[in-house]
Write a structure and sequence with these properties.
Elements: E1 4-5, E2 8-16, E3 24-33, E4 36-41, H1 43-46, E5 49-50, E6 53-56, E7 61-64, E8 66-71, H2 87-99, H3 104-120, E9 123-130, H4 133-143, E10 146-153, H5 164-177, E11 184-186, E12 189-190, H6 198-211, E13 215-219, H7 223-233, H8 237-243, E14 251-255, H9 261-269, E15 273-276, H10 278-283, H11 291-296, E16 301-303, H12 316-331, H13 339-345, H14 348-353, E17 371-374, H15 387-393, E18 400-405, E19 408-412, E20 415-416, H16 421-437
């Protein structure tokens, strides 16, 4: 047998590919050449490959890296700042005033902290909406994490760019700067229908269409938001977006907690994608998004953590477990959101939601090597009858032993390779001291 050369081999694991057939390979492995997956197969098939670096999964699970479809990475610096409050009180009385004191340097350092947390808990891609987003892009690039990033747009002046016109210029500059980057995708991200006038939304949608990039927006997060939009415009938030031509296949609608029958029809008809954030919605008492009905209608739903100020972590394993159990309890149906469905939400369906399914989200030949290894030699993961069940109901981010993004090892045996985690945490503590001192 002729030997084939790879840059990196992962061997002796249960490969949960998340491909269209749901293929799982016992005792399998993956060959990586440059940044791409060159082969996936059984132990016998992988014997033809050699590499200077070999990761022994030791019988653990080899899985596509998890995809966080909605977060605010730099809000790690607000973790625990204002808990147990209603959404609008939390935003207007605490978060917005704190954000007014942010600058590019603080956002960069706080985003590095988020990247460290995500790498250690198996997230290889995240979609971010925040201020000073070029700093978030630079942090993700430095950490070696894949990211979809977009500067938040409002009707009122931003702490970053000031007046709205400068916000669009900022986004255009980001699009140009990161156009050819292998890890960073720039998105257009107006905050929400209730904080963005129709002309802003239409201009944002046109910009996203012109550059063929995602359009990301908070939609129908609370009952009060839906009622406010109904009173002001005579439409639900989804209906308002439809009225102004914003709904489209490249739109990622975050939250979608309060939906009418007509809203379901509109989301389905326009192939809108949805980011579900169960833990944040629970913590802020926003409600429970009707995910089972969205899935029944064929709407693509990804999973997200939201920011650390409303969660308070970025662990997608915990988010998967919460999503599966929450919807079983709310529908009184134990078959709703089964483990495989939820795992798809956190991997390949998350990639579809962000428009990057041809790049990542599954372990298949030709795709980017965004892969994690789960150490299953743990008391809480023993015995293992079904690896997918374990991933959703028993595992946590601390069980991730290796994280690989675009073929680069960014965590080895729980040790971060791309970041000095002690320095990152020290920097975050200094930001917290400034915030605390007012």
């Amino acid at each position: 047998m002729t030997s084939r050369k790879a840059d990196l081999l992962i061997t002796d694991g249960i490969v949960v590919t998340m491909d269209a057939e749901g293929t799982c390979i016992e005792g399998g492995g993956v060959a990586i050449v440059n940044s791409r997956i060159a082969a996936v197969g059984t132990a016998t098939a992988m014997k033809q490959w050699t590499a200077p670096h070999v990761i022994d999964a030791r019988g653990g699970i080899i899985l596509p890296g998890l995809i966080n479809t909605h977060t605010h990475a730099a809000m790690t610096c607000f973790r625990g700042l204002a808990d147990d409050l209603p959404l609008m009180d939390w935003l207007q009385d605490h978060i917005f005033p704190a954000e007014a004191r942010l600058d590019e340097k603080k956002v960069y350092r706080a985003a590095l902290l988020a990247c460290a947390e995500m790498i250690r808990s198996g997230t290889t891609t995240f979609c971010d909406m925040y201020l000073f987003e070029d700093a978030v892009a630079r942090a993700a690039s430095a950490a070696g994490v894949r990211a979809v990033v977009g500067e938040v747009l409002y009707d009122f002046p931003s702490p970053n760019y000031g007046e709205l016109e400068h916000g669009f210029a900022y986004i255009e500059k980001m699009i140009e700067a990161w156009r050819e980057d292998p890890l960073i995708t720039v998105a257009v991200e107006p905050h929400s229908p209730y904080l963005c006038a129709s002309d802003l939304l239409q201009r944002a949608a046109a910009l996203a269409r012109r550059h063929r990039i995602p359009l990301v927006i908070h939609v129908s997060e609370t009952r009060s938001e839906a009622d406010q939009m109904q009173q002001r415009y005579g439409h639900t938030p989804v209906g308002f977006l439809a009225e102004h031509g914003i709904l489209s296949a490249n739109l990622l609608a975050c939250h979608c907690v309060v939906l009418s029958e007509e809203d379901f029809d509109l989301l389905e008809a326009h192939d809108v994608k949805v980011a579900h954030n169960p833990e944040s919605n629970m913590k802020l008492a926003s409600g429970i998004a009707p995910v089972p009905e969205m899935l029944r209608r064929g709407i693509c739903v990804g999973l997200g953590t939201d920011g650390c100020a409303s969660n308070n972590n970025l662990d997608m394993f915990l988010e998967m477990s919460t999503a599966a159990k929450l919807h079983k309890a709310s529908t009184l149906d134990p078959t709703v959101l089964d483990a495989e469905t939820v795992l798809r939400m956190a991997t390949i369906d998350g990639a579809r939601a962000l428009g990057i399914e041809s790049t990542t989200g599954s372990i298949e030949e030709g795709k980017a090597a965004d892969i994690i290894v789960i150490d299953t030699r743990q008391p809480h993961l023993t015995p293992m009858y079904n690896p997918i069940s374990h991933l959703v109901y028993a595992a946590s981010g601390s069980d991730v032993s290796w994280t690989i993004v675009n073929g680069r090892v960014v965590m080895q045996d729980r040790r971060l390779c791309s970041l000095d985690v002690d320095k990152v945490m020290d920097d975050a503590m200094r930001i917290a001291e400034e915030i605390r001192s007012g």
